[in-house]
Amino acid sequence: MDVVATLRLKGAGPSITMAPPSLRQNPMYTLYLGNKNYSSWSLRAWLLLKHFGIPFAERMVSVAGRDYNAALKPLAGNARVPCLHDDGFQIWESIAIAEYLAERHPAMWPADAKARARARSIAAEMHAGFVKLRTAMPMNLKLKLKGKTPAPEVQRDIDRIVEIWTEARTRFATADGPYLFGQFSVADAMFAPIVWRLHIYNVQLPSVAAAYSRAMLAHPAMAEWYSAALQETEAHAQYDGLAAEYGGPR
Ligand SMILES: N[C@@H](CCC(=O)N[C@@H](CS)C(=O)NCC(=O)O)C(=O)O
Known about the structure:
By secondary structure, the chain is of the alpha+beta class. The chain is 45% helix and 10% strand.
């Protein structure tokens, strides 16, 4: 199949040739996302686009931890956000959005094959797992709590995250950056909401993981997302009510 589409513009004289969306330098991306205070999955795709300076339009929808939201069905096949539209073509699931973008921007994954494989393993592990931690500590950027001793199953998730971050930083990270593999990659975007959760609920981390967390919290795009979250007015009692359980503000 020909990779170059020929378009004839009305009244524009001769036909012009134009690469299809997959080959264009500056595709027209629209990212549908949830509100910034609560929507942890949305942060991942947004952060990748921001970090790599990729132009996109943002459209925010209301999300509230629903099992199914029919209002999102026209926007995303899985009726969830984030969903990236590339000239109208939908890409949903945060990990698939990352892979779609990385095909055009290979620097989104580490250059070394083994580092890249490890980054893919942990990004997939994040996408599929850590349910106990995610349930016990929802992202809610307006909170910064004293914290409490995690339940054993939540602690297991935390221990695994510390193991993942420590291995990446000590075994795979190049010297040219503070992120999991040195330079910022898809793996960092995937773990970004976990960084916030551990910070919000005051989970103490060993030194390597703590340093990584500080680097992520200092990322300019994380700061931009955070300021925008603080301006939002949408509130959900099931998330905000956890403040008391975690000892109130710190
Ligand atoms: N596995 C999906 C999860 C997406 C997801 O659960 N999104 C939530 C918002 S963070 C959603 O759209 N919920 C619908 C709603 O609450 O109305 C991904 O990686 O993108």
